[in-house]
């Protein structure tokens, strides 16, 4: 047994009142959930850079009618298949020259193009400015993605909330409907709808949305099943709140992170589907430009004029990569358990 040790009274000196430490003081600033998510997102440099790249692409595509150097559908048969040319730049591929029989020749001089005329990304087989068509095509692809995503949100969130909140037989029937729809490949729906309605902005958006809302509905249903047993939901029901008010005031705000993240993953998949449908000829119809139609047109001359396919393909690749990186960053930012 340890011996008792007597500590002398002068071994301790009490602190003065002004020296008392406030151990209960909160050093970190008080943040809302959204502010904390934004703080986490800012620490993810890759996601932040991707976000600003997407903002720039959206801004350029929306301002396209103002900043485009030429009309995207304005054909000039005298200036067909011209390579890119930037005045003052003497780099092969950007100086207006093209490879012929192992050497490089000035395509602008061969086609007697005036000295003050040039096309930064070249022209296509009809003499249309490729840069202007890429800007217009990006705008069309983004519009299709936004319209289809809005439909996906409206149908998916409403369907999932109803299924999860009602439960029981209603939930069972609604989930069997989703399983039937999911058993048919998405491409079959799209092709059938586009054959009937022809390729237009609204018809493609509708075709993609009709076959793509089931993932959102399942996620929202799972969240609704979890949230409806929480104490604050039970309290609201006890106080007589209607199901509509509970969904609008409690369920949807608490599902916001899931909705935002799934939306960010939905947009690039919609853009890819639109590009694919336009590429195989059942999407946006010429002369309207989209990234898919531009890649399809460029693929026909890829062996001799690869720039006509490379530039729209690079833009499409950048959009898809940035959306996926940004969605990954949002998922980490909205997850409180993610490591910083």
Automatic annotation (TrEMBL):
Top-level taxon of the source organism: Bacteria
* Protein name as annotated: ABC-type dipeptide oligopeptide nickel transport system, permease component
Q: Where are the transmembrane segments?
A: 46-67, 140-161, 201-220, 258-282, 309-327
The record's annotation in Pfam families points to: BPD_transp_1 (PF00528), OppC_N (PF12911)
Protein keywords? Cell membrane, Membrane, Peptide transport, Protein transport, Transmembrane, Transmembrane helix, Transport
Q: What Gene3D superfamilies does the record tag this protein with? A: MetI-like
Q: Which GO terms describe its cellular component?
A: plasma membrane
Membrane topology recorded in Swiss-Prot or TrEMBL: Multi-pass membrane protein
Q: Which residues form the ABC transmembrane type-1 domain?
A: 138-327
Q: Which residues constitute the signal peptide according to the record?
A: none
Tell me the gene name: oppC
Compartments where located: Cell membrane
Note the PROSITE patterns from the entry: ABC_TM1
The GO annotation for biological process reads: peptide transport; protein transport; transmembrane transport
Q: What family is it from?
A: Belongs to the binding-protein-dependent transport system permease family. OppBC subfamily.
